[in-house]
Specification:
By secondary structure, the protein is mainly alpha-helical. The chain has 2 domains: about 100 residues, no CATH class; about 60 residues, Arc Repressor Mutant, subunit A, CATH 1.10.10.10. About 75% of the residues lie in helices and about 0% in strands. It contains 9 helices and no strands. Helix 1 crosses helix 7 and helix 7 packs across helix 9. It is globular and about 50 Å long.
């Protein structure tokens, strides 16, 4: 790890893209994802944390990302009004976010509790125990959410003829 002064910069360089992709997967809006990413690294800069290693840092960043996305979805601005922005993302930017955009779009369409677990499991490579720690849930709850999320995703993909 690095000193506290360089911690936020180090974390941004190492995990900035990961945090941005996770935020985009959870909220589905690129501009909001950028704002969330910026807020997270500003928080880390303002209040440096102590981490055992890079995996601990990454897990903390992803947990904060998921929580900020949940807070955004619960906010008055989003829940009562909706976004003014029409998603204007260039194809290069969208390709940067995911290799298989149609499946990611279906994941984002799932309820957040399923989408975040599926994203962390398949896109970030965490196991159920690690996801449980990141989200502050029991491992059994994460396993159930993962199973139910897969079932919902399968039904949606079958409806659209993707399977």
């Amino acid at each position: 790890m690095t000193t506290d002064i360089n911690q936020a910069l180090y974390a941004f360089r190492k995990f900035g893209d990961t945090v941005l992709r996770a935020a985009y997967a959870c909220c589905g809006n690129y501009a909001e994802s950028e704002d969330i990413t910026q807020d997270i690294f500003l928080l880390l800069h303002a209040k440096p944390q102590s981490f055992a290693d890079d995996e601990h840092l990454k897990a903390w960043l992803l947990r904060v990302t998921v929580n900020k996305c949940k807070n955004l979805k619960r906010s008055f601005r989003i829940s009562r009004t909706g976004s003014l922005e029409t998603e204007d993302v260039t194809s290069a930017t969208y390709e940067m976010m995911t290799e298989n955009s149609s499946i990611l779009a279906e994941i984002r369409a799932l309820p957040e509790k399923y989408a975040s677990v599926i994203y962390l499991y398949y896109y970030e490579g965490y196991n159920t125990r690690e996801i449980a720690e990141i989200q502050g849930k029991s491992e059994n709850t994460v396993s159930s959410l993962l199973r139910r999320g897969r079932e919902k995703l399968k039904l949606e993909l079958e409806k659209e003829g993707a399977l």
